[in-house]
Write a structure and sequence with these properties.
Immunoglobulin-like; binds copper (II) ion; alpha+beta; five-stranded mixed sheet; about 40% strand
């Protein structure tokens, strides 16, 4: 091969080789992305709280909340510190009437008692770009009984 290159002879790659190269990239990239995405949206960074208190940091960034899912137990006092990484974002949840509004690099804290069991959605209330209407997060409240 090197000998051929030195003699300035072009080694042609077949279409099959190119297809194989692209396929290998796809085969390795897709699961990597999947694992990273799953990890980022499913870890529960409980940063504090003892007994009946659970405390979370939630980051709003175009156009997602990280972590997207948080899990608590019924009866927990939940504290959420919401931070925006880029532009203005809002937060609204109908079950506990949670409202918040954060500018870039601002953090605000909301708190409530998780007195209902189920999966509850909250969403961004401030138009922040094309993905705004899909910007949602979920609070899962589990019954301990
Ligand atoms: Cu938004």
């Amino acid at each position: 091969m090197r000998e051929l290159e030195r003699k300035n002879i072009r080694v042609k790659k077949s279409g099959f080789e190119r297809t194989l190269a692209v396929l290998l990239i796809v085969i390795t990239a897709v699961p990597t992305y999947g694992v990273v995405y799953w990890y980022e949206t499913n870890r529960y960074p409980v940063v504090g709280g003892d007994g009946g208190t659970k405390e979370f940091y939630v980051t709003a960034i175009m156009w997602q909340f990280y972590p997207q899912n948080i899990t608590v137990n019924k009866g927990d006092h939940v504290i959420i510190h919401l931070t925006s990484m880029d532009v203005q974002h809002g937060l609204y949840n109908v079950q506990w009437n949670l409202t918040s509004n954060v500018f870039a690099n601002e953090t605000k804290t909301i708190a409530f008692t998780a007195d209902k069991v189920g999966v509850f959605e909250y969403y961004c209330t401030y138009y922040c770009g094309i993905g705004h209407f899909d910007m949602k997060g979920y609070i899962k409240v589990e019954d301990q009984q």
